[in-house]
Design goal:
Blueprint: H1 7-22, E1 28-30, H2 49-61, E2 65-68, E3 71-73, E4 78-80, E5 82-86, H3 88-96, E6 112-115, H4 130-147, E7 151-154, E8 160-163, E9 171-174, E10 190-193, H5 202-205, E11 208-210, E12 213-219, H6 223-233, E13 246-247, E14 250-251, H7 254-264, H8 270-281, H9 295-308, H10 313-323, H11 334-358, E15 364-365, E16 369-373, H12 377-386
Parallel strand pairs: 6-9
Antiparallel strand pairs: 1-5, 2-5, 3-4, 7-8, 7-11, 9-10, 11-12, 12-16, 13-14, 15-16
């Protein structure tokens, strides 16, 4: 009907149609860039960008989808992915041809992902070893438990707004070209899990139910700092709030100290940390990219501006590093160490997930927090406090 002839184009069209059918009211993100869509590990139908672009354009021309072409602002380094949204014409076509979700086969998604350390975030192939096989086994068990549980988002009047099923959560590691040097560096960067509920606001997440029971979200306090202390000293930070800081008798607002610490994970110097803080508080605003900061974020940015007039950001950074001498050498070592610290965090989170899974307790993670039924709150709090950093995969500073 829309004049696609090549097998590659037809396969791309099928993938698009299946996603558009399953999510008829959502904008579906899709790549359009002229680059590989991944090796067979991630792309079993070997779809290329040419076939995908042809299928997208043909659907758009025949008014089957509303396509919003993505863009990239080179100056700000921000980008927007292409999205497609189902039109009524396509919905009618699905009805006319008797589409049914029960007829759809779901391919098993790769659960252990390795992506490039660049802007493209290309998915990279790798040779399986004992580590990746064990990770995949644990992730399968975790996904099976989630899919055997009822996970829903309810509205304020307790109506089902969204159901989370057919889940296939994976862990995404980042390549730093160290994986060929020995097992000690294998998959030692990144490793976070990304799930559909991560895109919900904190208020929305309060309305998640698991097996028809209310849930509670528990954070790992000061997660990256405590992960560093656990990895390097065997114990979390035990002298109060690690972000509590005074400089020249002035108490520095916690959010400023936390922002500085976060930036120091990925920067290389005091100067680059300060630049990162400036971008965080005052993102570049253009005609294409509007100011999306909340009132709270704007107020914090103004507070940062006022503090800068009294205390130099460099003084705040040096005072923080002096407070945390044990872990200070691991800051400002650029992205490679930042991703390694993320790995320490993700390993602790995943160890807790595995413990809960083995006890048949479904848990949803949002980076460094856990959503569980209220009756398991104490269990999770105990695990957060007592789960050690077991993996000895520590890159030299």
């Amino acid at each position: 009907e829309i004049k696609l002839k090549r097998k590659e184009q037809k396969n791309a069209l099928k993938i698009l149609l299946l996603n558009l059918y399953i999510y008829p009211s959502e904008k579906i993100r899709t790549p359009r860039a002229k680059k590989s869509l991944g090796s067979k590990r991630y792309n079993p139908l070997k779809i290329g960008y040419g076939g995908l672009r042809s299928a997208l354009n043909a659907q758009n021309e025949h008014e089957l989808v509303i396509q919003e072409i993505g863009l990239k602002d080179v100056e700000s380094g921000t980008s927007k992915m292409t999205t497609v949204l189902t039109t009524q014409k396509l919905r009618d076509w699905f009805v006319q041809h008797n589409w049914n979700i029960k007829d759809i086969s779901f391919a098993e998604k790769e659960l252990v992902v390795l992506r490039a350390n660049n802007e493209s975030k290309d998915l990279l192939d790798y040779v399986d070893g004992e580590r990746t096989k064990n990770l995949r086994k644990e992730l399968k068990k975790y996904n099976q438990l989630l899919n055997s549980s009822e996970i829903i988002l309810v509205s304020k009047n307790d109506k089902v707004e969204r159901q989370f099923d057919d889940l296939s959560l994976n862990r995404v590691f980042i390549n730093h070209d160290r994986h060929s040097k020995g097992d000690e560096d294998l998959f030692a960067f990144g490793g976070r899990m990304y799930a559909p509920w991560c895109n919900l606001s904190s208020e929305q997440r309060k309305r998640i139910k698991i097996n028809n029971e209310k849930t509670v979200e528990i954070d790992i306090e000061s997660s990256h700092i405590n992960a560093m202390y656990k990895a390097l000293t065997g114990q979390p930070y035990e002298l109060g709030d690690p972000y509590d800081l005074e400089v020249d008798g002035l108490k520095i607002p916690r959010h400023i100290v936390k922002t500085a610490a976060t930036m120091m994970q990925f920067t290389s110097s005091v100067r680059s940390t300060i630049s990162g803080m400036q971008r965080e508080y005052f993102p570049l605003v253009t005609e294409l990219f509007k100011d999306k900061r909340s009132k709270k974020e704007i107020d914090r940015a103004e507070e940062y501006n006022q503090i800068k007039k009294i205390v130099k950001p460099s003084s705040i950074i040096r005072a923080y590093l002096d407070k945390h001498k044990e872990i200070a050498p691991y800051y400002q070592k650029e992205k490679i160490m930042g991703h390694h610290i993320q790995y320490w965090e993700s390993e602790i989170v995943f160890d807790i997930v595995n413990e809960l899974t083995n006890n048949l307790i479904p848990v949803l993670t949002v980076y460094d927090s856990f959503i569980v039924q209220e009756k398991y709150k104490a269990k999770v709090e105990y695990l957060i406090k007592n789960t050690p950093f077991n993996n000895k995969n520590i890159i030299k500073k």
